[in-house]
Amino acid sequence: MTPAQINGILNTVTGSSAIEEFWITDSAGHAYLTNTGIDFTFSPDPAKQPQASVFWALLDGRDKIVVQEIRKRELDDRVFKYVGVAGVDKPRIVQVGVSEKNLLCK
After folding, report:
1. What span, in angstroms and rounded, lies between the C-alpha atoms of 73 and 83?
2. pLDDT at 102
3. Which is nearest to 91 in space by CA: 66, 65, 58, 62?
4. Tens digits of per-residue pLDDT, 28-52?
5. Which own/partner contact pairs does 67-76 have at CB distance under 8 Å and 24+ positions apart?
6. What pLDDT does 77 receive?
7. Which residues, 6+ apart, have CB-to-CB distance to 96 below 8 Å?
8. 3-102 placed in CATH 3.40.50.300
9. Structure confidence at residue 86 (pLDDT)
10. Which residues of the chain have pLDDT under 70?
C-alpha cells in the first residue's frame, strides 16, 4: 500500500473510534504516516520537544513501549494522552493520541 492509502485507512479508524491521531515514523523520526496532515519529525532533544522527545527511546531501542501522562502538547497546547510502541519491522515510532474530550478521566 502507498502512504496515501495507509493514511486514508488511519482517517477511517479515527472517524470511528476514540483514537484521534496516528503518528508513524520512518527510522529518522519523520512521521510520514499520519491522519493529521501535519509534517512532524520527532527530536531526541527535550529542550526542543518537551512533550514529544520521550518517544525517541522507541527509535533508539531503549524502550519498546512509552505511555505518556495526559499533558499539553507542544504543537498547539491541546491536552492529549499519547501511547507509542517501537516498530516491529524497523526502528520507528508507532504512536496513537487521544485528546481530553475522549478520555474518561478528566
Report:
1. 13
2. 86
3. 58
4. 999 999 999 999 999 999 999 999 9
5. 70/100, 70/103, 70/105, 73/97, 74/49, 74/50, 75/38, 75/40
6. 87
7. 19, 21, 22, 23, 82, 83, 84
8. no
9. 98
10. 105-106
* Apex 73 CA angle, 70 and 74, nearest 5: 155
pLDDT score, position 45: 97
- Which residue type occupies 31? A
Q: Quick one: which of 18, 93, 90, 6 has its CA closest to 55?
A: 93
The three-state DSSP-derived secondary structure of the chain is CCHHHHHHHHHHHHHCCCCCEEEEECCCCEEEEECCCCCEECCCCCCCCCCCHHHHHHCCCCCCEEECCCEECCCCCCEEEEEEEECCCCCCEEEEEEEHHHCCCC
Whether the CB-CB separation of 84 and 105 falls below 8 Å is answered with no
pLDDT, residue 29, reads 98
Q: What is the dihedral of CA 11, 38, 74, 49, to 10 degrees?
A: 110
